[in-house]
Specification:
The protein is α/β, with parallel strands linked by helices. The chain contains 17 helices and 17 strands. It has 4 domains: 137 residues, Rossmann fold (3-Layer(aba) Sandwich); 102 residues, Beta-Lactamase (2-Layer Sandwich), CATH 3.30.450; 76 residues, Helix Hairpins; 165 residues, Heat Shock Protein 90 (2-Layer Sandwich), CATH 3.30.565.
């Protein structure tokens, strides 16, 4: 067995030792691997000139400098074009990997995700590629060598969209994937028809535009699920400029870049939402503070009778601010991930009966009929009693607050079809405008009609309800009609008697 000689030049975060240790673990008597570590550009180039190597592992960037690393890569490739160079990048510099391919790299990988198994696959692919290049070179023809040495999967189409050539990189990928766009693209195949058969019409449309001369170049990304993992590939279609026309297709995997873009977009959405919430929070706090300062000044100058009235209003503003702060704290303390140890079997029907009893005087003071349908004895859910009580309280408080006259009907029952306990709170109040219904669970949101009511709300009650219900693996349904009322339904997974213990 011929010894594989591998040059390793990876400076970032001590990855040199990590890669070397993995390579050493793969070395056997039957398949020996000789590892040569270097720590400087000069040493790497000198060794490459003096000794033969099977492949090179090069970490980018070098000393945090992108230009130096790409320059070294170019020099290595020019010095030993037949030696595959595997570039290792970190999570923050995945884009550098694509640049490395243009400078002659065989492939690029994230150094954080390299394992002994993946390293073995990398070595096998690089070795196979080296043999192919050697064979192409022996057959003669610079065009043939260049075509098969291109560091990306390449296909050539004629003016009719038929495949006329497939390079070795494409064929190697076909041995590792079940993506039909890769495996079924062979010389003689009608590529446009293949794209339609495998339900990739967007690629067929892009290729057609290039073949018809409507666009000189077209790039798009497409996903493929391999062994339960989503893989993203970028396909670039470029028009051929000789008289008979045609196109060249190249494909590169860009999974890490796409995932990073998705994560970045999510972070940007979170930041935008946070900024919006902070602005709203400042506004919501400023309004009562301004009002409190005004009434405090009025109370100082007023006579005894008016002072009593101003102090009463001031007290109401303080109570409202305390409620607002309490709601903010409640929302912030609700964990995004459920802590299983804090959840226990709860008789949800008992909680509903208790909250209705507490809210009866509030409804009676507004001459609203608050009714509760008879509650079955065993309506158990897995949850936290205080949080579930908060859900019921917030829904009933809202129903009573936004109902000037009429009734609020409450019921709770088991839905055997969905295996859920269903709480229904229906009122005959002002209703919710369909245009604002999608926003009612957003923190600080209050509809224009709600803002015009005499009773001020915090705009956080329904956001708290939604968060608690989600933590209990439940969901919410809302229906509403203007000037006729609103119905909230809360669905929580039911516990069977055998699960209560």
């Amino acid at each position: 067995m011929i010894e594989k000689r591998i040059l390793v030049f990876v400076l970032e975060n001590g990855e040199n030792a990590h890669i070397s240790n993995l390579l050493s673990a793969l070395s056997t008597d039957a398949d020996p691997i000789h590892i040569q570590n270097v720590t400087s550009t000069e040493a790497a180039l000198a060794l490459l000139q003096e000794e033969p190597f099977t492949m090179i592992f090069l970490g980018l960037p070098i000393n945090h400098t992108i230009g130096d690393g790409l320059n070294l890569l170019l020099q290595m490739h020019q010095l030993k074009p037949e030696v595959p160079i595997i570039v290792l990048v970190n999570q923050k510099t995945m884009g550098l990997g694509l640049q490395a391919l243009e400078f002659g790299a065989f492939a690029y990988y994230s150094s954080q995700h390299v394992t002994a198994q993946s390293l073995r696959q990398i070595i096998n692919r690089a070795t196979a590629k080296q043999k192919i290049l050697q064979a192409a070179q022996n057959e003669g023809g610079l065009d043939n060598v260049l075509f098969h040495s291109f560091p990306a999967c390449v296909v050539v189409l004629n003016e009719l969209g038929q495949v006329t050539a497939v390079n070795q990189e494409w064929q190697l990928l076909g041995q590792e994937t079940n993506d039909p766009l890769i495996t079924q693209t062979q010389p003689g195949v009608d590529f446009l028809q293949l794209c339609r058969q495998i339900k990739k019409p967007d690629i067929a449309i892009a290729v057609t535009k290039v073949l018809e001369g409507k666009q000189a170049k077209y790039t798009l990304e497409y996903p493929w699920k391999q062994d339960g993992i989503m893989i993203w590939r970028m396909i670039c279609i470029t028009a051929l400029r000789w008289p008979q026309g045609g196109a060249i297709l190249t494909i590169q995997e860009v999974t890490d870049i796409v995932v990073n873009q998705i994560q970045l977009s999510t972070y940007e959405d979170h930041i935008t939402k946070l900024q919006s919430n902070v602005i709203t929070l400042v506004h919501e706090l400023r309004a009562p503070l301004t009002s409190m300062r005004l009434y405090l000044d009025l109370a100082k100058r007023a006579d005894a009778a008016k002072r009593k009235h101003y102090l009463s209003v001031l007290k109401q503003e303080i109570i409202h601010m305390e409620q607002f702060v309490d709601e903010i704290l409640t929302l912030s303390r609700l964990e995004e991930v459920k802590e299983a140890g804090l959840y226990r079997p709860v008789n949800f029907g008992d909680l509903v009966e208790h909250v209705v009893l507490v809210q009866q005087p509030v409804a009676a003071a507004k001459e609203i009929a608050l009714t509760l349908t008879a509650v079955p004895d065993t309506l158990f859910v897995q949850g936290r009693p205080r949080q579930l009580t908060r859900v019921i309280t917030n829904l009933l408080s809202n129903a009573i607050r936004y109902t000037k006259a009429g009734e609020v009907r409450v019921s709770v029952a088991r839905d055997d079809a969905t295996h859920h306990i269903v709480l229904t709170v229906a009122d005959s109040g002002m209703g919710i405008d369909p245009t604002v219904l999608p926003h009612i669970f957003e923190p600080f949101f209050r509809s224009p009609r709600a803002q015009n009511t005499a009773e001020a709300g915090t705009g956080l009650g329904l956001a708290i309800v939604q968060r608690i219900v989600a933590l209990h693996d439940g969901y919410i349904e809302v229906t509403s009609e203007l000037n006729k009322g609103t119905v909230f339904r809360i669905f929580l997974p039911a516990l069977d008697p055998s699960e209560i213990g």
